[in-house]
Write a structure and sequence with these properties.
Structural class: mainly alpha
Low-confidence stretches: none
Strand order of the largest sheet: 1-2-3
Radius of gyration: 20 Å
Oligomer: single chain
Order of helices and strands: HHHHHHHHEEEH
Strand content: 5-15%
């Protein structure tokens, strides 16, 4: 395995320092290099199982009364490739991936599937190097908010927040667009919700309504309204 120079910035972004650098170097090696090099495919397999286990634990703790079917649907949403790719982007995993030398532009190689697979491989590397607790810490740090905004079937975060605010004698929640990014055909909305003197909460989505729902779910989770019950 080649020298591990340059891993320190990635370790800071991951929030974990590896004792055995070989495991993270393997996790960063895409299957496109020559066949004689070990790639992340086996770690991807393991990381997918570790992620599923930890998310299942988090869901059981957050929704102690939810039926198995609802938990399964939430689990599938939280461990899907797109969610893993988003986490990979958040820690800029793409800049550390190792591809075979070629003429293909690097940016075009960083697809959702590649980033999602690499994220799972990194989870496996953390698990192999530091055990399940280290993997739990990483997953919790990057999936906690996702879990709080993932509503159980039949739940409407905005309606639930308004009902809760009224029950507490608080003003009706107000929503404002904090930021909008992305091209016109694929925008991203960042919405902030405020309820009386409570600290505001923010959520993102592909539409303003989706971002408002996410922001409402974040506030409900932070205030303990959601998560302690199904």
């Amino acid at each position: 395995m080649k020298a591990d120079a340059g891993l320190a910035p990635l370790e800071r972004r991951l929030g974990y320092r590896f004792k055995n650098r070989d495991v993270i170097l393997t996790a960063l090696t895409h299957s496109s290099p020559a066949a004689d090099r070990v790639t992340y495919q086996r770690q991807e397999f393991l990381g997918d199982r570790v992620l599923g286990l930890v998310i299942a634990e988090m869901l059981l703790a957050a929704y102690p009364a939810a039926p198995e079917g609802d938990l399964s649907r939430l689990l599938a949403e939280l461990v899907r490739k797109e969610a893993c790719a988003d986490v990979a982007k958040a820690v800029d995993l793409g800049s550390a991936l190792r591809f075979a030398n070629g003429r293909t532009p690097r940016a075009s190689l960083l697809t959702t599937n590649v980033l999602g697979d690499a994220c799972e491989a990194v989870i496996a590397a953390i698990y192999e190097d530091g055990g399940i607790d280290a993997a739990r810490d990483f997953i919790a740090a990057h999936w906690r908010e996702r879990l709080s905004t993932a509503a159980l079937p039949g739940r409407n975060p905005k309606a639930a927040l308004q009902e809760w605010a009224q029950a507490q004698g608080l003003d009706v929640p107000s929503y404002t667009i904090a930021a909008k990014s992305g091209p016109d055909h694929e925008p991203r909305f960042d919405v902030e919700v405020r309820v009386a003197s409570l600290a505001p909460a923010r959520g993102e989505g592909k539409t303003r309504r989706e971002a408002e729902q996410a922001a409402a779910a974040v506030l409900l989770g932070r205030e303990g309204v959601w998560g302690a019950r199904s």
